[in-house]
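Re-run with default settings, no changes from the original entry. Doing this only to confirm the output is reproducible before filing.
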Amino acid sequence: SIRSILDHGAPSDNLFKDFQKQQHPIVSVALGLQHGIALDSAGQVFCWGKGERGQLGLGRRFASEDNDAASQDVEEEPNQNRTFEYALKVAHFYDPTKSATKNDTYAPVLSEEDSRIRLVAAGMNFCFAVTESNLPYIWGKSILPNPNYSQDGLNVRTSPVQDSTYPRFVPGLPPGLRVEKVACGSHHAAMLLEDGSIFCVGVATDKPVPMWGEAVEILQSGLIEMERLVSFTAGFDRTTAVYQTEDGRRQVIESQLWSTEEMRLQSAVRPSFMDWVETERAEEKVHSVHRGWLHSIVVTE
């Protein structure tokens, strides 16, 4: 049978539209607090769940981020802040290499080919994706730097960040290095690059400082050899890499997004549970580490 769904953005004489059948296999899924993101084999991304803070990425970026729908005298995307039990395609990945003209309402977007996605992840109230062309994007709650915010005390009612209903390009990565893995904690997104370095955006661990504007390095290259990588995960405020040493043992490195560069580049630690594992379970090899708010799970081979 053909099922139909209520289309809130349709004209009043055509409130329903048919479900589209899934066209390609799903290759990756990630879940946030009350939303989800799925990637299919064709590089298409779909989101579902609660979207009142932009978690579903269904909005569009205006030609100037200083503008909004009211100042542009246009209607907002009808579904950008709604909740959906079915998956909707995320399509408006704007092109960071192109500038809008004075006649453009919206920022130029990537072509369909350039917007093919290869990596996805989800935080508590946001989503993260990387295109085949190595461009990282993020959308959701409180991840967009507010251009009207100042710290001079005159804007005490404004916030340094605001919601992004559209996929926002994340600058800051060193040119020429491919993102190999992505993972999200509750309030940060981490990228493992091909040289073994880790770059991150999010909220600082040591104090509630939003650091969503551009990616910063939290682990320098040279420690992780990518050919020896076993797993790359993130949970709560930690980013964790498991890799195999030359003598066949497993090493675990945890990093965090600290507010200062000095703290970030000295933050890599070997978690204390590894002492117990090597003493009490010497025959076991750690495969991955998964952290929640108040507990952790260590998975061995």
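The chain is about 5% helix and 40% strand. Residues 172 and 185 are 19 Å apart (CA to CA).
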